[in-house]
Amino acid sequence: MNLHRLLAQRATAKRPLRLALIGAGKFGSMFLAQASRMPGIHLVAVVDLAPQHARERLAHVGWNAERFAAPAIADAAKHGTTCV
Questions:
Q1: In this structure, is residue 12 part of a structural domain?
Q2: Model-level pTM?
Q3: Which residue range is the domain that position 14 belongs to?
Q4: In whole angstroms, how large is the CA radius of gyration of the chain?
C-alpha cells in the first residue's frame, strides 16, 4: 500500500480526505508545512486555544491567508479552504 498513490487517486477523483488539526504548536506546525503539498488532503479546520497563533503558524509555513479565511467549517468544506 502506497499512501501517496492512494491520496493522489483521491485527488484525481476530487474526493480528498477531509481532516482537522487540533493544535498548531510545534508538531502541528510541522504537519501544516506538509499538508498543503500533499495531494488528496483537504485540511478543513485548525483548532487551537489561540486562533491567532494558529493563523500566524499557517502564514509562517507558507499558507496564503485566503486559504485559511473560511468563517465556518461548513464553508471550508464546501469551498476547499480552511477554517481556524
A1: yes
A2: 0.89
A3: 3-79
A4: 12
pLDDT of 1 above 70 = no
The structural domain count of the chain equals 1
Contact 37, 11 (CB under 8 A): no
Q: Which residues pair with 45 in a beta bridge?
A: 20, 83
Question: To 5 degrees, how large is the angle CA 65–CA 4–CA 72?
Answer: 30
From its phi and psi, is residue 65 left (phi > 0), alpha (psi between -120 and 50) or beta?
alpha
CB count, 10 Å around CB of 12? 10
End-to-end CA distance of the chain: 32
pLDDT tens-place string over residues 30-63: 999 999 899 999 999 999 999 999 999 999 999 9
